[in-house]
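Bench notes, afternoon.
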Amino acid sequence: MDRAKLHAWLNTQIDERQPPAQLEEGMGQSIMELALALGALENDRGMVFGMYITAEENDLAPFARKARSTLLAWCKRMGETHGDEGIATVTTIAARCNIVLDSLQPHANVQRVATPFVAQFVAALGDHAMLEQRWRAAGSLDDDDFDLAVRVEVGLPDPDRLAHVMQIAHEAFGFELPASYVELLRTYNGVSVGAVEDPEPAEVVSVEARQLSEPVIWPAEVYGDHFQLDAVPLAGLEHAFVFGELADSGMLVLEAADPGPIFWLPRRFAGSEPIRLANSFDEFLSAFAGSAASVPQLLKRAGVPGWGE
């Protein structure tokens, strides 16, 4: 099996073992299979869902993170339905497979930090009249067939997944995520802003993170691999952390090393250098709010080639 097919297969296998909306018999088998697979993936070799896999020519780290995240999702789901006993069921099964799970990650208890930049961005998302005016002036709502308007969706907070991302960043890569980024995801676990036909209601709509439509700010873990570019050599980026994207156009990337500048990376980035958008996540939030939460307007204001003057 070639690398692309293997990666697609691994994604499918893990997705098939996500906790269902309605718990049913046989869930212990799914948890055990995930734990066994995680052990092999984290050790770079072993049986993974019935197939022997090694790390040779395969980057298994993203799938190890995804498998561990799925096990934590099981902890959360079982905790919601069966309390501490449910969580203990998951952690016990994992322990029998030599996997230690801590559903209450230490990073989950980090003190919240009040930041005016998050407040400024949240206020901009809630100013529907301003968004409509700015998007219409930019031509983003022009359509000959439909009457378009701006719709803002935000993900419901998921402390466990956010804590897991913070833990991976700290333990595997040796950096702490910016306080304002963490606070934003504690407020809104992902943000989607787009032009749609006759949205109802007009105000900010809260949804499950998985239901966000092409989020510009990714929710923690459930949309894309935040660490997918860490091993990719990119000018100006030592530790690349992907936190968002404009669908089919490019990614928003945070440089984890202090002071944490923000870059735009075109989707087809082979031969392209990342383009610096802001000197920090605070500065990015301020610029994004000033661009009416529109990535194209943000890129235009930053002078990114191909996005207008």
